[in-house]
Amino acid sequence: MKITFRARLLTALVLGLGISLAASSAWAANDLTFPETSYFYLSGVPETLTVQAGGVVDSVTVGTTTVDVTLGAGGSLTLKSPSRYVMTASPTAVGTGSCEPSTYNMVLASATTQTVTVTVSSTTCSAGGGGGGGGALPAPSPSPSPSPSPAASPSPSPSPGASPSPSVSPSPSPSASPSPSASPSPTPLALVPIPAVPANPTTAQIQAAITAIQNNIAVLLAELAKIQTPTVGAFNQDLFYGLWNNADVKRLQEFLIGKGYLTGSATGNYYTKTVEAVKAYQTAKNITPINGRFGPKTRAAVNQDLGL
User: Fold this and answer.
1) What is the pLDDT of residues 63-107, one digit of tens each?
2) Cis omega before residue 91 (within 30°)?
3) Nearest partner of 272 among 188, 186, 165, 193, judged by Cα
4) β-strands 85-90, 104-109: how paired?
5) Whole-angstrom Cα distance, residue 154 to residue 175?
6) What CATH number labels 229-305?
7) What pLDDT score does 139 carry?
8) Which residues of the chain have pLDDT under 50?
9) CA 43, CA 23: separation in Å to the nearest integer?
10) By CB neighbour count within 10 A (0-12 exposed, 13-18 middle, 19+ buried), where does 268 fall?
11) Deepest in the core among 152, 166, 216, 277, taking most CB within 10 A?
12) Quick check: bond before 46 cis, omega within 30?
């Protein structure tokens, strides 16, 4: 990763202006403008929002999952989510959301001075959705189909004079396992270009550089965790929804976390988040069908990635 400005210059600028490299940051000015494309990194989602050039606001506060924008009279700002995560605005009249093929856009505009809070969810919008600041919702998942109950075998009639054999009790019908509800496939973070900081930078230019650096640090830490993942034996059995406290499921989750497809900790429980992470991995590897089940094809691909 090449940084286009000297670290010593950036450190001096940051210390001089009192800007903290924290997950939540803020700055304010009269008629704060964005002459170039900028970036806001929200660590709680996580997502790096693109700020379209040409925005004019009074102040901006970037949190872990929200962006608070104070708009002056006639002010406007356009935010874009490369992962197509749904954004909502409060009050809703100030923001207009739209789901595009490659981004989810939130356009803020106001005729009067007011503060609007934009919340970024981890839900991916569906094509054609959006509008009104309310965002788009994912398509509902199909209802689960119950497994048929096995028929009980009839007890044979005893022969005359013979000792009657005990009757066979039918086995209880297995309860149907519900299909996991659909949730957005996590999109692994990617390195973003770090904007060059001129000799006399504005606050917005410094913040854009800091945000890009924070994003790249998160990406590199994920890569480091992947490298440090210990080598284990090859997977040799299918794994599927409903398994609980399973050692192989925990190993699979650790693999998916290292690859950036799963967030959180490895629990050994094969539930909705693990299904969606496996679906994302299957999509990336062009494995069909994309069903979230850890079957022979997916198992072979994971073993290959592990070098086994």
Assistant:
1) 899 999 998 888 899 999 999 999 999 999 889 999 998 899 999
2) yes
3) 186
4) unpaired
5) 22
6) 1.10.101.10
7) 44
8) 1-30, 129-132, 136-143, 145, 151-155, 157-168, 175-177, 181-183, 185-186
9) 6
10) middle
11) 277
12) yes
The structural domains of the chain, with segments of one domain joined by +, span 7-139+185-220, 229-305
Give the model's pLDDT for residue 31: 64
The pLDDT assigned to 12 comes to: 42
Asked whether the beta carbons of 168 and 107 are under 8 A apart, the reply is no
